[in-house]
Design a protein that fits this description.
By secondary structure, this protein is α+β, with helices and mostly antiparallel strands. It contains 10 helices and 9 strands. It has one domain: Aminopeptidase (3-Layer(aba) Sandwich). α1 crosses α7, α2 runs parallel beside α10 and α7 packs across α10.
Length: 281
């Protein structure tokens, strides 16, 4: 029922303006300075959404962001308040939580080819194939099991920017809002979330053996990622799909080889959190 969505439903402008100060750090051997991994882990953690209950949290969060806030889909199509599609059953899902409140703050998924039918199209092949340039990347020329798609990266509004009115994309109580805002320096670090979820998606690609990841994203987000040593190669034309979007090719090994040391430490921390119950560690 639901069509393919662009990679990010987040305030990328805020991310661009907020991430630079975090990366202007001195020698990483200076133990008196907190790394990005330290900063992220102090306020948030990630986990695999691999149970029915956790998946439901993912779907409800996506509904609040993609359906209610951004209106990418009609609300009447999701009577149960959960945004999901046929690709969720063969995807790896990540859930991002705020430590102080336990709130689900964000999510992202890695769509793998369907084990029951490897030739079945991925979302970008079904809905955006016309934007792809075959001379830049041709899905037919690589093994189907090595292709995947990063999508449904969503972050709740309150964790992206301050609320300016009474309309909220999620049922957050006033007590929970106060807990979020009272975390020491936590607000300034919220722009780290889109990049952290993106890094998680790259780790998930490696986990499931995906060497060719596709993401439909805004060119400005790709420029942001490249600034941090995360190369994303544009392999198609920009199309008008909930704003200007283009297909970008992601190579996890190339990204991890090029990423700066501080982000690499963050990648390792995220991978460890995905492998255990990080909240209790």
């Amino acid at each position: 029922m639901s069509r393919v969505q662009p990679l990010v439903a987040a305030d990328s402008t805020a991310a661009e303006s907020g991430l630079d100060p975090l990366l202007q750090h001195p020698d990483l051997n200076d133990s008196s300075r907190s790394t990005l991994a330290d900063t992220f882990s102090k306020y948030f953690y990630v986990m695999r959404a691999d149970t029915p209950a956790l998946r439901e949290e993912v779907y409800r969060l996506r509904y609040e962001v993609y359906v209610r806030e951004f209106a990418y889909e009609a609300e009447e199509h999701f009577a149960d308040g959960m945004e999901r599609d046929d690709y969720d059953d063969h995807s790896i899902h990540c859930l991002l939580r705020h430590r102080a409140t336990g709130l689900a703050a964000g999510t992202v998924r890695m769509v793998c080819t369907d084990p029951a039918d490897r030739n079945a199209p991925l979302p970008f092949e079904r809905y955006c194939l016309h934007a792809l340039r075959s001379d830049q990347f041709d899905p037919k020329r690589v093994p189907r099991h090595s292709i995947g798609e990063v999508s449904r990266l969503a972050i709740l509004q309150h964790f992206r920017r301050r609320l300016t009115d009474e309309r909220k994309p999620f049922s957050i109580t006033q007590e929970q809002i106060k807990a979020i805002d009272s975390a020491e320096h936590g607000r300034e670090n919220f722009p780290i979330l889109p990049v952290s979820l993106f890094l998680v998606s790259i780790a998930m690609m490696m986990y499931c053996g995906v060497h060719h990841g596709i993401a439909m994203m805004e060119p400005r987000l790709a420029r942001l990622l490249r600034r941090f040593g995360l190369p994303a190669k544009q392999v198609g034309d920009v199309i008008d799909y909930h704003g200007p979007r283009a297909p970008f090719l992601l190579d996890p090994e190339e990204m991890f080889a090029a990423v700066n040391p501080d982000l690499y430490k963050l990648v390792l921390a995220l991978d460890q959190q995905m492998s255990r119950n990080a909240h209790d560690s």
